[in-house]
Design goal:
Blueprint lengths: L5 E2 L5 E2 L4 E2 L7 H14 L3 E3 L7 H7 L8 E6 L6 H15 L4 E6 L7 H13 L3 E7 L3 H8 L10 E4 L11 H7 L4 E4 L11 H9 L4 H9 L5 E3 L6 H8 L8 H10 L13
The protein binds NADP nicotinamide-adenine-dinucleotide phosphate (NAP).
NADP nicotinamide-adenine-dinucleotide phosphate binds next to helix 9.
């Protein structure tokens, strides 16, 4: 996996395949085992948020391997004032049972000025409570506003909706992020599991002796700087997803995917929450 690692500008590296946790909690024991199996395999980036109600589950999953895990959490927009961001971070740290978050994101744009949220993020970073900070659901124009703020150039990452059905970010946000060596996390990379019966994906999967899910993940991770964070609730799914790192899609595969799921030919406003 070494050659495939994604580097933040800090020099910290992660596997391009991480693990989501939205809607976990219904099968807690199995989900914790799944997250731990993923970490053992090298999928150490775990994505949570104060909104998901999964921070304590993530904390339990990483209890014996905190130093290996790269925890991403998010502040809710309504809490993202200067003081509110700091308080939300303290609450997340308590629920996670850790004294630092590897990457702390603003979940999406809300009522508070970016300048307040960023000032809090910068201070949290200086205090060692977060190691990196970043944004989620921000398009190019808003990312430009972040970068123009004091310390804004320290913004480490952005997390956006990206899968075969939602390719708008290819038009500008992916190249923009790449130019700035800013990793982009692709959320809902499996289209919430709804794309896997698509005839084109089934056909491509057969060529690789793989599954449509693995093809979707290999496709998201084909671009440098992209991190896919599928949510998988079982060890079997985690292991299946991990094997997507071994798939090299061919020109024929890319042509078939482009025919079924066309790339954007013009600016498309960021999709998502
Ligand atoms: N920043 C944001 O605003 C934002 C928004 C949405 C999501 N996210 C993050 O992104 C993560 C992923 O997105 P998502 O949860 O919306 O959707 P997703 O990862 O695209 O899809 C999850 C679905 O795929 C299924 N799945 C996973 N691996 C599979 C496999 N090998 N075979 C068959 N089915 C499989 C899961 O089922 P099982 O559970 O049964 O494995 C689940 O139903 C979230 O968990 C969250 O951490 C962030």
């Amino acid at each position: 996996m070494e050659g495939r690692m994604i580097a933040f500008r800090s020099g910290v590296q992660v596997c391009p395949l991480g693990q989501g946790t939205y809607q976990m909690g219904k099968r807690r024991g199995e989900e914790i085992r799944a997250l731990r199996r993923g970490i053992d395999l090298g999928m150490t980036l775990i994505d949570t948020a104060e909104m998901y109600d999964t921070e304590d589950l993530v904390g339990e999953a990483v209890r014996d391997c905190r130093d290996k895990a790269f925890i991403v959490s998010k502040v809710l927009p309504g809490n993202a004032s200067y003081e509110g961001t700091k308080r939300a971070c303290e609450r997340s740290l308590r629920r996670l049972g850790t004294d630092y978050i590897d990457l702390y994101l603003l979940h999406w744009i809300g009522p508070h000025p970016f300048a307040e949220t960023v000032r809090a993020m910068v201070e949290l970073q200086q205090e060692g409570k977060i190691l990196h900070w970043g944004m989620s659901n921000l398009d190019v124009a808003d990312m430009e506003r972040i970068l123009a703020l004091p310390h804004g150039e320290d913004c480490a990452a952005n997390q956006v909706l990206y899968n075969m059905r939602d390719r708008g970010v290819e038009y500008d946000l992916i190249p923009w992020s790449r130019q700035r060596q800013m990793p982009l996390m692709a959320y809902t990379p499996l289209g919430e599991g709804r794309l896997r019966d698509h005839e084109t994906l089934v056909r491509i999967a057969r060529r690789h002796d793989a599954t449509p899910t693995q093809v979707m993940l290999a496709w998201v991770m084909r671009k440098p700087g992209l991190i896919a964070i599928p949510k998988a609730g079982s060890t079997a799914h985690v292991e299946e997803n991990f094997r997507s790192l071994d798939i090299s899609l061919t020109d024929e595969d890319f042509r078939d995917i482009d025919a079924a799921f066309p790339a954007p030919s013009h600016k498309i406003p960021l999709a998502g929450w």
